[in-house]
Amino acid sequence: MIPRFTDHAANERTYLAWVRTAIAVMAFGFLLERFDIFLYYVTRSASQTHPVLHVRASEWLGLILLLFGALIILFATLRFYRNRTLITSEESTSYGGTFFERLMASSLIAVAVFLIVYVADEIFALN
């Protein structure tokens, strides 16, 4: 039997949850990076000109989300190995290292607010 198996299994499940989240963020970033194709067809059917600035914004935001997903995987891997070492350690330590989690959550909130404003601007531009 593996000592502290339940703790190791919980650590691995948490790691896999972070990886799934990162994959979802990266997929959304790829979708957003290709959002300019959707904007092209919508503005073409509405017989309006296609704003170049908004196309560049979706491309840059998509790239940022792709990089952000890669960073999530990197930080999750570092956290997994740190927790694995702490679980096998006989010493009692306090839980820490929430800086990256707070940074990632703040970044996701900022991206969500930007997307709300961005999509609202596009909707109002079509009217």
Written overview of the protein:
The protein is mainly α and 127 residues long. Helix content is 83%, strand content 0%. α1 (5-33) packs antiparallel against α3 (52-88).
Features:
elongated; cell membrane; transmembrane helix; 4 helices; single chain; mainly alpha; DUF202; 127 residues
Q: Write down the secondary-structure element order.
A: HHHH
Radius of gyration: 20 Å
Poorly predicted residue ranges? none
Morphology: elongated
Structural class: mainly alpha
End-to-end separation in angstroms reads 65 Å
Tell me the number of structural domains.
1
Number of beta-strand segments = 0
Instruction: Indicate the proportion of strand residues.
Output: under 5%
Q: Largest sheet, if any?
A: none
Helix share, percent: over 70%
Average pLDDT metric: 81
Number of helices: 4
Q: Care to give the gist of this entry?
A:
InterPro entries: DUF202 (IPR003807), IM_YidH-like (IPR052053). The protein is built from four helices and no strands.
Topology of helices and strands:
Layout: H1 5-33, H2 35-45, H3 52-88, H4 99-126
Helix pairs in contact: 1-3, 3-4
